[in-house]
Amino acid sequence: MTEAPESADPRGGAPDRYAPGTPCWVSLMVHRMAETQAFYGELFGWEFQPGPQQLGPYVRALLDGREVAGIGQLPPDRDLPVAWTPYFASPDVDLTAETARLCGGTIGVGPLDAAAAGRLAIGSDPSGAVFGLWQAGAHLGTGVTGVPGTPTWNELVTYETATVVKFYETLFGYEERRPGPAGTDRVTLYLGGRAVAGVRGLGPDLPRDRGPHWDTYFEAADPDAALDRVAALGGRIVTTARDTAHGRVAEVADPEGARFSLIRSAR
């Protein structure tokens, strides 16, 4: 992580409406919906309800009755990588998508309406990392943050930060800060003085089997105990839990291989 997220409201607060450029939702497209729901339901205590079906079967995950994430079904004939995708709030998805194209990104899905919930597009930045855009209608985005089982941070892992950071700054008006010692290629993206996402350049150390990608961090009360549950539920431990300046962190993968991080945030 480039910088710890701000200490969250202990009651699990979320904004009434996300400011443009703020990560507002995370979604996962999978091949085996039932197995995936069982895994995350047991790991995080999520329950599920149907969501918009424009891209195929889709459910929203609920924690204590509030929406935290989405899971959708990939078409059976599409052999696509299974990965968590962050969505960034936009007041005008069509305009933001067109700006992304003009700045060297691509738009693979949309823009399209998701019933009354809102309007979306899915694309990739110039490095190839996939992200989503969300223009809220009835669905504002993640309804609870800062408690175990909720997304708490998103970080782009890429080759180098300079070019791709300019792309996101143009889209969303971010300010950048470079934390850490000289020689490390890390950037924290800010909106209105608040850290909202990170970018980390790995150069040749970036895993070839993944390429540039966004990493989603989910809050966990006890990452060490969560690792045992992940393994018991058919997932995989990628890195064991370790203490960092931002909290205790571990990386895991679900039964279909979608990687994500667990963090007990430093308070």
TrEMBL record:
Transmembrane segments: none annotated. Residues 22-136, 150-265 form the VOC domain. Gene3D superfamilies: 2,3-Dihydroxybiphenyl 1,2-Dioxygenase, domain 1. Signal peptide: none annotated. SUPFAM superfamilies: Glyoxalase/Bleomycin resistance protein/Dihydroxybiphenyl dioxygenase. This is VOC family protein.
